[in-house]
Amino acid sequence: MFQILSWTVRYLFIGLIYYFIYHIIKLIYLDIQQINNRQKKNFDSPYLKLVNRKESLDFEVQEFYDLKDVVTLGRHRDSDIQLMDKFISSQHAKITMDEGEYFLEDLGSVNGTYLNSTQIQDVVKLKSGDRIGIGQVEFLFVKEVD
């Protein structure tokens, strides 16, 4: 009886290990696929890349957002980047391009907009590698060097 229980526990444990390895490989594959999809588009324009794990958020969010001349972020359906986070205001922040440079501005949000973990009070210039935090979401600003 003890030997049967021992074998059962052993095979269950081995099965759990394989299940865990399968999910790790699946996550790696999906991440590589997202990066390849981004590269296939061959965009040279600046973009925002999600830093959070998508699974940890309780709302839909894309992995990449391409930036136009003016991009608004918020909960409102008219926002260019709509994020249904309860900690994000309906019109939370705006990213604007002026003379080839991008600037981040908080639009009077309740919980604030953060650049590299520091709350911004005024319009700030973005540089590649900056981390933009709004609500529970954190983005990486990426601008390819010419």
From TrEMBL:
Transmembrane segments annotated in the record for this chain: 12-32
Pfam families: FHA
SUPFAM superfamilies per the UniProt record, alphabetical: SMAD/FHA domain (SSF49879)
Domain FHA stretches: 71-120
Keyword entries, A-Z: Membrane, Transmembrane, Transmembrane helix
Highest taxon of source: Bacteria
InterPro entries, per database record: Cell_Proc_Reg/RNA_Proc, FHA_dom, SMAD_FHA_dom_sf
Keyword Transmembrane helix tagged: yes
The protein's name in its UniProt record: FHA domain protein
